[in-house]
Design goal:
With about 400 residues, the chain is of the alpha+beta class. It contains 10 helices and 17 strands. The chain has 3 domains: about 140 residues, 2-Layer Sandwich (Nucleotidyltransferase, domain 5), CATH 3.30.420.10; about 90 residues, DNA Binding (I), subunit A (Orthogonal Bundle), CATH 1.10.30; about 80 residues, SH3 type barrels (Roll), CATH 2.30.30. The longest helix is centred in the N-terminal third of the chain and has 20 residues.
């Protein structure tokens, strides 16, 4: 066995000609919060999914931690101390620099591409280069000529973004699993524009009922819903901007692997999925990236890898003012184990008697906690613990392929 999760067996007792091994392709659907990766084979233009992975990013947590750290440092510089001028104005960033929360998305995706290429005979990579064309979304008009290529795929970018922004349900009545129509919050007949901040989704019944009525009048008896609609309509294109900021960095990193890289747009992916009648998920989007005939089959179980990080260099915990309140051990490994390792503990007797498999949290005392699928098991002696896999910065779970993956 080469790896426990994902389960990989390396065969060493045989040699096979490389030309006789059927290669596989990788499909990647980059996202702001989740990235879908699909391993598939192709025959006569039809794809068969072999393995699917959903990678959950931690960019939001990285952003929050950096903001908190900056606030602590700013406070320590100025609180009850003489003023010291900030130095950030004389610092330059290298060309192509990305914020840590954005670079994290590129690094984790490339980590899994490299890992899968080590396990599998990958022959090509298909990546969705851009999910949303923010220029077309914010222009508020139909782009013409070279500005936007009209055709079968025109409009899919806007509809795809609205589906994710408004939760794939009617904004007025909350109905889901029903055909939805693009609706102007402020009617065009009353001066409303085609900007993305003025568009939402409504079922046919609500769309006809509202017609050209101002939204303030239509939702006069639902003030809470009216406030939510108006607030959410002006929400920034944060997720779309994150994807667009990292798309070229991801593409450059993929090309540096030496594998052939084919690119496609999110509109093409949605069009492929609508033709095959597949449900919506990041992993199935990865299976539908690029030129596609049909999808013969796809895995019904998805491996979910959540980025958890590899701990912290900081050996103290701070209070709300940023001052140390708790000191941690100077080493991360205790009795040969580190927090996050995948272990199995066989306890012969006592209140924790039984077999427990999960992620371990170590203590200096040698009494560990193990987080299993059924809950947290406390105070297990390290002598009963056996290592299955070292911590690699991810937490693993599995789930069935669903239609609500956003």
């Amino acid at each position: 066995m080469a790896r426990h999760t994902p389960f990989v067996i390396r065969l060493r007792d045989r040699t096979v000609e490389q030309s006789t091994v059927q290669g596989v392709d990788l499909g990647i659907d980059p996202g702001s919060k989740h990235t879908g990766i699909a391993v598939f084979t192709t025959a006569s233009g039809n794809r068969t999914g072999r393995f699917t992975l959903r990678l959950d990013h931690r960019g939001g947590r990285i952003r929050d931690k950096l903001s908190t750290r900056a606030a602590y440092r700013r406070g320590r510089r100025t609180r009850n101390l003489r003023y010291r001028a900030p130095r950030f104005l004389n610092r330059t960033r290298p060309k192509g620099w990305l914020a840590p929360s954005l670079q994290h998305r590129v690094d984790t995706t490339m980590s899994w591409v490299t890992r899968l290429a080590r396990f599998l005979p990958v022959r090509a990579v298909h990546v969705e280069l851009v999910s949303f064309d923010t220029c077309a979304l914010t222009a508020g008009r139909d782009l013409q000529g070279l500005e936007y290529q009209q055709g079968t795929l025109a409009g899919y970018e806007v509809r795809q973004y609205l589906l994710e922004k408004w939760g794939r349900a009617c904004v007025y009545c909350g109905r889901d699993n029903t055909p939805l129509q693009v609706e102007h919050i402020h009617p065009r007949s009353r001066g409303g524009s085609n900007r993305i901040s003025n568009l939402t989704l409504a079922c046919e019944r609500c769309n006809l009922a509202k017609s050209s009525t101002p939204v303030e009048v239509f939702l006069n008896d639902k003030p809470a819903l009216l406030a939510r609609v108006l607030k959410h309509a002006k929400a920034p294109l944060r997720d779309a901007a994150a994807v667009n900021s990292t798309r070229w960095a991801l593409w450059r990193s993929l090309t540096e692997t030496g594998l052939p890289v084919a690119t496609a747009s999110g509109g093409r992916t949605k069009w492929n999925r609508s033709r095959t009648g597949s449900p919506k998920s990041h992993t199935l989007d990865a299976l539908h990236v690029g030129e596609l005939g049909q999808v013969a089959a796809w895995p019904r179980v998805v491996l979910v890898a959540s980025a958890t990080g590899r701990g912290t260099y900081c050996r103290t915990r701070t209070d709300k003012y940023g001052f140390p309140r708790l000191r941690l051990p100077r080493v991360k490994a205790i009795c040969g184990y580190a927090t996050g390792d995948l272990v199995r503990a066989v306890v012969p007797s006592g209140k924790n008697a039984g077999t427990h498999t999960g992620r371990v949290a170590v203590r200096s005392s040698g009494s560990f906690n193990i987080k299993t699928r059924n809950g947290l098991v406390r105070d297990i002696n390290h002598n009963y613990v056996r290592l299955l896999q070292r911590a690699d910065g991810y937490g693993y779970t599995t789930q069935k392929e669903t239609t609500d993956d956003q």
